[in-house]
Structures
1.
Amino acid sequence: MNTRFTKILATLTFGLAMLWGLTFIGTTVSRLADDGAVCVQTGLWANATLEGGLPVGEGVDASSSEARLCQDDPSAAQRAADLGGQLPWMLFASLALLLFSRLLDAVVSEGPFTDKTARRLTVLGWVVTAGTPLAGLVAGGSHSWLTASMVPMETYGPEVSGPQVLILAGLAAVIMGKIMRQGVRMREDLEGTI
């Protein structure tokens, strides 16, 4: 096994986790200290016809896809919803990268087929499996609430945003961790028998 590459990857992953963590903290502090407008993009009026607003050719229909809404002098709840629309994915990425870095450290120190590595892979898998829909629900719900607070005819409803396919990757990591743990136990039993 190439431990030099794994060490470099573990260090790089740890550095990225710290970078995402600092970005999370910096974004939180700068947004809380900012007294400017809060903006949100919405597809509320998707495919709405634009009456004579764009110079298009004959026979071409123009429609809008996204609307950008901005609230000057937002309330504390609107500012919190703005943060809730962005920060959950930063926190999730930082935590997942940190756990992946710890997994790689275990591979470097003890090898790939050990109980410690299997446990860390399982933990990473569960965090990704549970964290993906949770981050998506917080971000989507915050976005939905912020939009509803700016458009009186829009109602708030729970939404899930982001790449939910990561749940499959998390479940695969959980399954692989369980398989590795079983393999470690079988090897230990075999070594005890001999």
2.
Amino acid sequence: MLIPAADYLTYAEAVTLYNDLREAEIIALVKSAGPPSFPFGDGLYYQLLIEEDEVEAARGIVAEFEQHRTAEVPNRCPRCGSTDTLPAPHVRWWKRLFYAGTTLYQCQNCGASFAT
């Protein structure tokens, strides 16, 4: 019987975890899941299924993958690549309107502004 090893994966994450499990000689199945996308009806996310008897062997690999997946990635400046960025202190009204729903950051190294 197949058991879900990981849920709500992006395509890239599903392929990465599938390859990690395959290197450990664990057979896995990647299946489309989640809410359907328009117009094709496939799921937006993917689910990785493994055999019930291989759960113990895959537990460490899946745990390590989840740890890397949930690790916070620092903001990088698109101009110089520095991670020394902070939210912009004074943002003009038109920039707040233009970048609504995002956070405007300013690089402390080169002074560039960018949104995430």
